[in-house]
Every structure is written in structure tokens, then in C-alpha cells.
Amino acid sequence: MQSYGHVEKVLEAADSPSAAARSRLAASWRRSAHRHGLDPAERRAPDRVEAADLRRRRDALDLFLTIAAPRIDQLFTLVGQSGCAVLLTDLDGIILDQRVSDADAQTFEDWGLALGADWSEAAEGTNGIGTCLAEQRRLIIHRDEHFFARNTAMSCIDSPIYGSNGEILAAIDVSSARADHTEGFNRLIAAQVAQTARAIEEANFRAAFAGHRILVAESDAPETAALLAVDGHDLVVGATREARRAFGLGDGTIAPRPAVDILGREDGPTGFERAERAAVIRALARADGNVSQAARQLGIGRATLYRRMKRLGLGEI
Fold this sequence. Notes:
With about 325 residues, the protein is an alpha+beta fold. The chain folds into two domains: about 45-205, Beta-Lactamase (2-Layer Sandwich), CATH 3.30.450; about 210-310, no CATH class. The chain contains 14 helices and nine strands. It has helices at about 1-15, 15-20, 25-35, 50-60, 60-80, 100-110, 120-125, 130-135, 185-210, 240-245, 260-265, 270-285, 290-300, 300-310; strands spanning about 85-90, 95-100, 140, 155-160, 170-175, 215, 225-230, 235-240, 255-260.
């Protein structure tokens, strides 16, 4: 009876253009029913890609998965004992990596939350992973907010992860197997999911621009990473999605531009000289004042660093 009630509620909202206009959830239900042709009463198990396809997808993101792994481990340490699994997908919603306790493994396997499973919105309707990727935003899909009636026993908490080119690359998901998890508890987990997504995005960006100076710009969206990669000629050659938004850099490959043209000098909190000075101070501090070591961290020569220190009014720390 409860399943029938859910199906009726979903179909009523999906058939109402006004409901879709008022509610993001109803809009996702409408996409699921009308764009993807799904039936909320369908009982089939989630689709899975073939083993060879899964290997190909993992190989294509090998460095990214290596960077993400310890941060996924850390998140699982925080949530794993409360009946949660941590999942990482590619941009198609295919699960590429997961952490789940032995006690909960069979439950998640039965739900289809397993390696190779397709949790795109096109395949599974409204769900944390698929709808996060479709709408490119952080979200929580709690129990009966799912499209399929068979998925209403779970809560899913998700955040997108953007690649070094500013385009969406993956999603990180925490799914709960506990019926007593409240919406308030989910919001606490959501903060950890967003923090993990940001940490993965930052680490992946730094790896993509190894040897470049990385400047941290101020942003009005603290849950996202606003990073700029600057080469030895003080040209900005890379930016995270949030930095692109903040500085109007657009999508795709960035044409090298002088950092001072983007950040300004001392005008405001994101001035280039201020950001550059902070980057040099951090490098010297990490190197315990060793200029040669700090220069290597910044991807520049020792003499170049001395000149910059002089221009910025910095003595050896």
C-alpha cells in the first residue's frame, strides 16, 4: 500500500508542469517519467556495466581515483559505523569506487549500490547520484524523494566534483541503510560530503598543475575550491570551476593571461601581490625558511624566488 501511494504521488507530480516549475524535486520526477520514460513502480534491479567497461572507466580516471582514495577512506571513517556507504562515480553515474562495512555490504549489494552499477538519472530516475550529476549541485534525496518506489528505503547525500578543466568529473555519495537516519542527521553528513568533494577537487587540481604556483583566491562560496595555477611568467594557465566563475574565465582551456590582469594588485582581498605574498610565505614556512626548498615547491628557481621576496618585502623566514 505504501509503495502504491508513492507511485501515485510521483506520477501526479510528474504530470503537473506547475509542480515541476515550483519544485526541483518535482522537476526531476518529471524528467524521470517523461524524458527518460521510467515507471516508478518498476521493480527491476539497477543496471551494471560489463567488467571490461568498468575497467576502462577506472583506467581513464586512474590518477583521479588514486588521489581520491585516501579522502574517501577518511569520510568512511566518519560515517561507516552509522550504516553508511561511501561511493564515487564518474560523470555518467557509474560507481567506480566504494567503501562499505562488512555488516552492511549485502544490503547495499541488494539495492544495487555496488561497483559498476549505473545510477544516472536516466537509468534510476531521481536519486542522489544521478540528480546531483544532472543538476550539478549538492543535494540530499531522502527516502521517498526517490523516483522508484524500490529505492525509498535509502537516503542519499551527494556532491559533484569538478575536474582541473572546470568541468564536472564525478560525484561523491554517502548512502544510508538506516531507517532511523533523520533529515537533520543527513544535513550533518552533507557538510562532510561537501568538504570531501572540495578536498578531492583541490588535490586533483594541484596534481594536474604540478610545478606551478597555486594561488588560493577568496570566494563567496566557501564550500568550493577557488584555485588558480600560475606559471613561471606570472601567467594564469589553470583555474578551478569556482575560480572561473569568480573571475569570469569561462569554460575549457584557459588562454594564458597575466595574473595581475585577473587579480589586480593590492586592490581588494584577491589582489595578485597579496595572493602571491601569501603563497611565498606559506612555501617558506613549509620549508622551515629554506629558500631552495621553497623555490622547488613553487616551481621556480632559487634566484627567481629571491627576487620575488625582495619585491614583496620579505626577508628569509
